[in-house]
Amino acid sequence: MATSRIAIFVLALGIPLAAQDPHFGVGLSLSIPTGAFNSTNYGADGSGVASNEAYDTTVGVQFTVSFPMDPKYALRLDVYGQSTTGQDTAPGYVSFDLQHRLLSLGGEAQYFLGEGDAYRHRGAYLVGGLSLDLENFNSDYGGPSWPGTSVDKTRLGGLAGWGYSFRPFGRWRTSAEVAFHKTLTGTDTSGQAAPGTPAADFLRLTYGVVF
Question: What's this model's pTM, rounded to 2 decimal places?
Fold first, then answer.
């Protein structure tokens, strides 16, 4: 079911862009969790224990294809992935490890500001759009008598940000981008057995090349 939805999503984004002259990009991102993804307190569960779950800053990888539609406007396919670790802590109990994996398939609009040029992918730009987020939350209790728990989520996400692209030499561009990713669906953080599934909200600082 999830695979078919991914195929439909990618085709819907890609078909109108097939005739355009694209710019390909790759970058490394520093991902900083915010809100409930940074820290969530859960009420007492069936055992009467309250806990806190928190995830760490991590590094992600971004691949983009930008299709210029006119001198100021482009449509962009954005494939982004990251894996981050965290901890669940409860008073009087040993902490155990958490891991969150994310593969985000996005479709975004870019608008180049001032003297920016979408055809050349140069200058400052605004970017925003939606994504299909494939996620896995995993808890590891650290022993055979306490098996880990894994939860898969498919959620809708949104992204908004600002970037700047310039050409230091040749035809390659160097790009820097600051964007905020927000989970738009399936964000319930009511009490539950670990791992919880908070919204994967984070600030994404990306540096890369476009060619």
Answer: 0.86
Q: What is the pLDDT of residues 175-206, one digit of tens each?
A: 999 999 999 998 876 656 678 899 999 999 99
In 10 A of CB 182, how many CB atoms? 18
Which H or E run includes 36? helix 35-38
> Total structural domains in the chain?
1
CATH number of residue 127's parent domain? 2.40.160.20
The residues near 130 (Cβ < 8 Å, ≥ 6 apart) are: 106, 107, 108, 156, 157, 158, 159, 184
Beta-bridged to residue 202, according to DSSP, are 33, 181
Whole-number CA gyration radius for the chain: 19
Nearest to 74 by CA among 127, 25, 35, 115: 127
Structure tokens at 176: 């820097």
For β-strands 96-112 and 51-55, DSSP reports them as unpaired
Question: Distance between CA 145 and CA 15 in Å, rounded?
Answer: 51
Quote the tokens at residue 40.
Answer: 């969530």
CA distance 31 to 83: 10
Q: Under a CB-based contact definition with an 8 Å cutoff, are residues 162 and 190 in contact?
A: no
CA-to-CA distance for 189 and 196, rounded, in angstroms?
A: 7
Q: How far apart are CA 91 and CA 113, in angstroms?
A: 51
The residue segments making up the domain with residue 201 are: 2-210
